[in-house]
Amino acid sequence: MAELSVNFAGIRAPNPLWLASAPPTDKAYNVNRALEAGWGGVVWKTLGEDPPIVNVSGPRYGYMHGGERRLLGFNNIELITDRPLAVNLREVAEVKKNWPDRALLVSVMVPMKEESWADIVARIEDAGADGLELNLGCPHGMSERGMGAAVGQVPEYVAQVCAWCKKHSRLPVVVKLTPNVTDIRQPALAAQEGGADAVSLINTINSIMRVDYDTLSVWPAVDRKGTHGGYCGPAVKPIALHMVAEIARDPRTRGLPIGGIGGVETWRDAVDYLALGAGTVQVCTSAMTYGFRIVDDMLQGLARFLDEKNLHSVDRLVGAAVPSLTDWKYLNLNYVEKAWIDQDKCIQCGRCHIACEDTSHQAITHEVNGRRHYEVIPGECVGCNLCAAVCPVEGCITMRPAGAAEHADWTTHPNNPARTAG
Amino acid sequence: MPTPAEIEKNFTDIHPPLSGHGGLVESARCYFCYDAPCVSACPTGIDIPGFIHQIRSGNGDGAARTILRANIMGGMCARVCPTEILCEEVCVRNKPGDSPVRIGLLQRHATDPVLERGVQFFRRAESTGKRAAVVGAGPAGLACAHQLALFGHAVTVFEKQKKPGGLNEFGIAAYKTVDDFARREVEYILAVGGIEMRAGAELGRDITLEELRGEFDAVFLSPGLGGVNRAGVEGEGLDGVMDAVGFIAALRQAEDKSRIKVGKKIVVIGGGMTAIDIAVQTRKLGAEEVTIVYRRGPEDMRASRHEQDFARSNGVHFRCNARPARFIGEGTVRAAEFTVDGGETITLAADMVFTAIGQALGGGIPEGLSTADGRISVTADRATSIPGVWAGGDCVAGGDNLTVTAVEDGKVAARSIHRFLGGGHG
Prior knowledge:
heterodimer; A: alpha/beta; Alpha-Beta Plaits; 2 domains; eight-stranded parallel β-barrel; four-stranded antiparallel beta sheet; B: Fumarate Reductase Iron-sulfur Protein, Chain B, domain 2; FAD/NAD(P)-binding domain; five-stranded parallel beta sheet; globular
């Protein structure tokens, strides 16, 4: 059986699936249920200075559905904890005492003043937490008050807060990054320079879900007014994976532990993050969608996968896919793939044809000898993968290698005015 | 025997409509095929993926408009079309482990609210000053009248019955069109305006084709099939031996179905939809034993396999490869005798025998009309051999005797008539 335990920046946990700082980790009741369900750790919902903030009592969440109302995108305007600091700290201490083997980090956010950070991180350490996660990413509400993303978007502030926390606490410091920046590597570098032990990402993305078609106001609205919220859920995973991988493959931040966050719903999603360099995976939306039990298959599936691939431990999976990531200019321009349609699986819906015909390269037939028949015309196919993307049948359209000459990329291509050789 | 309440329950909708949520879930199953097979399989060519996409996008009225633009009787067709041998048979999801999108139910999901609210999508064009006569207010006649009215022609419909609707009103099994849907649909169609209904006027009795040709600029004939085929065997005159069509009509028009007398042991002769309808309906009325006897094998029946299974699930027995030899009884029938392929004779006890062995043009075909197989011959435009006269529905040769094909006949003929009357391509 595969070894799922992890040591993340000095914090040990029986598995890498942790609950992210969010509504599910707001209080002991929920956290106890999560740990009973098998989660390897939790990041307690962000603590702040007293008096506690106040949340809206209208809709806090917006959503975007796929077919059959499957939740694909989710957004929220909830703020940090709205409970007194002492209550949270007392519960943190209790939970840690009852669950010594699990990772218990506490998310924290206070104004940009050293004494504020110094005071609260000391109290969190006293409560028995295993680590700090600095919330430098919340994109709504708190950022208007100079906290959250307002700090995370300025690398100098990131470095400064990290330095204060390291100075005033012995706990490992994880910096949770905001994706609402142009280059995620800058705040990650700043965190490292400030002495952070790890980063976690992504926090939620600035978003507006839609309008209300009857009132023509933003939706959801609180008494006819709405505001942008933080976007998450399955739809954001590719954005988050890119940011995680950028940090993982940058030589300057190589080796910096990364907590991967964003759209994790199954063990496959967890594998994506781990293989692209994350040492743990944090989950929120899928737990909020299906309940804590969703961790069952994540754990079983991940363990089975590690054994099947002869990896047997999470450590050996972490970063396994990072070397395969490169810049566009190094892609082999001589490599050729062609789409291939399995006629036994084809149900003849014609979607591949019309997609290719209207929007791509006219490389798929509609009729052959007067009969409805979909087949790739290899001479026209550029191997773009659109047909496979739109096909409703799993495994019906696949891309097949169609010969590769010697590697040649843009750096040496004759059409490149700045080519280096060739 | 079932109580009146049980009978009422027996005749409720056999395919209850989809809920709002059910409609969304089912619409999400459509793959939005390109050049979709279901569209080709629909005799009226409804843009099925298009209207299902509209249901899914929350544009329900737009979906109804897409349907009704191609088929003004989309509501009835959603109920009575044998979708299992039309659109749903060719759905690309019709693969092992999967099932076709329930197009019929989705079509009803889209059209019901529109008829309920009386939303009219189409407006009549400016009056052309031309007048057209339509004979028969069944699906073909009403579809033709509606389309002609949209083109701006003044239409007069002659219907021999006291009310319009044709087989939608008098023929289709009661459990397929509950809540007086046929009447409501006719009202919706006539609400477009420009259509005068003359009920109780029969071609050949009250009016002649010659008179119509003299008075109107164009004539569309869709009188249906007034006659029924007879078994032509001994004992056909016995009490209790009757044609299914008349009984079904009486059942449809009955205020109280529990007052309809039905036998205990019933034999139905035939293999089409009429046979299935009478067999199932007599079962629902309380008949104890109902047997459909068909002269060939089950695969030759005009009723689809789906319809045969439906009858079986309602307790109807089948006896194939048997031809009626004679009906036995003294004044009233008590048994029917059949010759089975191979020569053996079987006798089935029966206190009611229904013949459902096809219908024929009744009342004589107007002179000068070419016919084939006892029905009126038409061109692809549904034009007859007489200039200025078109025909459609069950009375024409080569048809499928379906509501949906009748609607298409009416639509195609109306376009041809419009061109004939000097209009453009409608």
